[in-house]
Amino acid sequence: MSFSDETRERAREIIARYPADRSRSALLPLLHLVQSEEGYVSPAGVTFCAEVLGLNKAQVGAVATFYTMYKRKPTGDFLVSVCTNTMCNVLGGQEVYDTLTEHLGVGHDETTADGKITLEHAECLAACDYGPVMTVNYDFFDGVDPSTAVGVVDELRAGGRPMPTRGARLCTLKEMAVQLAGFADEREGAVADGGPGEATLRGLRLAQEHGVSVPGFDPNTPIRSKAEADKAAAEAKAKAEAAKPAPAEASAAPVKGGDGASAPTGTPANAGAGEPAPAAAATGSTAPDVKAPDDKSPQVRTAETRQPDASTAAPDAPGTKVPAETSPPAPRDAQRAEAAGVAANAPAGDGKPAGDDAGAQERNLTEAKTGTDADGTDPADANETGAQK
C-alpha cells in the first residue's frame, strides 16, 4: 500500500530524532507508526521501514517478529489482553480468559467478526499487586473477574469507552500506536483522565508518614526547561575553565647542566654539575620520567598494579612496583630449564609414540614373526598369565 503524506512526514520527524549515523535506531517507533495506519505491520509496512532507513526487509522483519506489540495480521480496534501468568492465574486470571473466549467466540490472537476486539492471553503484565488484571490497548483494568471482564468487552462492542482503572481514557489501537511512535495524544483532556492505583500510592504515603525522602530533595523545586539547563551547564563549564591555573611557559633555550649537556626537562636552571635534580635527589633514582598513576585510565592503572611488566617498567616508577615473587626468571635460568625439558622428553620417531620402549616393541615383533615366546615355548602352552601378557 501507499502510506499517507502525514505518515511519511511523521517518519521523517522520527528519523530526525537520532544522529545521522544512527538512523536505524528509529526502527521501533517507525514500526508503531506504520501500525497506526494499517492496524498491523504488513509486508508493505516492513518495506516502507526498510526503504526510509536503508535496511533490508529481513532486518526489519527480524525486529517486527520479535516484539509482541507489533501485530503481523489485522487486529481489532481494541486489543484485550488477559494476564494468565502465575499470580493472576492463582487469583482467577485463567477463568477470566476462558469466559471471554466463550463469550466472544474467539481464541488467542483472534478477532471478532465485527472487527472490534482481538483477544489474547498475556504473560506477566507487571501488575501483580492488582491481579487478576487485563488491559485494553495496554490500559489497565485491575481486579477483574469474569463478569466485569464481560461487561467491559460488551461496552466496547456497543461503541462505548469504559474508563480504565488507571491511566487515560481508552483509545483505539491505531491511536495508541501513534503515541507509542512518540507523538502526543491529541484528544482534548485525554491525558487528564484517570489516576494512580491505591497499591501504587501505598509506598508514597508510607514515605510521607515516616518522613522518608531522598537527601536534599525539594519537591517544590521546578523542573528547568532544556534551554535553562543548557545555560546553567555552560555557565558551570565557563566557571570551571576560569578556575584552572594558567599553564607555565616553557623557557626559550634549554637549560645546560654542569657538564654542558642539556638538563632533563623540568630541571631548574641552578642545578649544577654536582647537584642532582630534585626528583633524583629525593629518590636516588635515575629511572626515566613516567606519568603519575592518576594520569592513566583506571583500567591501565589497575592492570599495572596487579600484573606489572617487569621487562619494561621502571623498578621504582609510580604504580608499577614489581612484586618479587612475580619477577620473571633470568634468561640463563630459562635456557637451562628448556634444555632439561628437551632432554627428559625425547621426540618421537619412526612412527612410534614418544616414551615407548623400543626394545619391548622389537621383542614383540620378533615373537609375532616366529610364533614362539621369548623362551622358545609354543604360545599355545602359555599359562593364563602369559596369555594375558
- What is the percent of helical residues? 40-55%
Q: Which strand-content bin applies to the residues?
A: 5-15%
Basic shape: extended
Helix segment count? 15
Question: What is the terminal separation in angstroms?
Answer: 84 Å
* Number of beta strands: 5
Low-confidence stretches: 262-269, 276-283, 310-323, 350-356
**How would you state the average pLDDT, rounded?**
76
Given the helix and strand composition, which structural class is it?
mainly alpha
Computed over alpha carbons, the radius of gyration is 40 Å
Strand and helix order: HHHHEHHEEEEHHHHHHHHH
> Oligomeric form of this entry?
single chain
Strand order of the biggest β-sheet? 2-3-1-4-5
Largest sheet: 5 strands, mixed
Description:
With 389 residues, the protein is mainly alpha-helical. 41% of the residues lie in helices and 5% in strands. It is built from 15 helices and five strands. The chain has helices at 5-15, 27-38, 43-53, 57-64, 86-91, 93-104, 146-157, 173-180, 198-210, 226-243, 278-283, 298-306, 331-344, 358-370, 384-388; strands spanning 78-83, 110-111, 117-122, 134-136, 139-141. Strands 2-3-1-4-5 form a five-stranded mixed β-sheet. Strand 4 and strand 5 (139-141) form a beta hairpin. Helix 6 runs parallel beside helix 7 (146-157). The termini are far apart. The model is unreliable at 262-269, 276-283, 310-323 and 350-356 (pLDDT under 50).
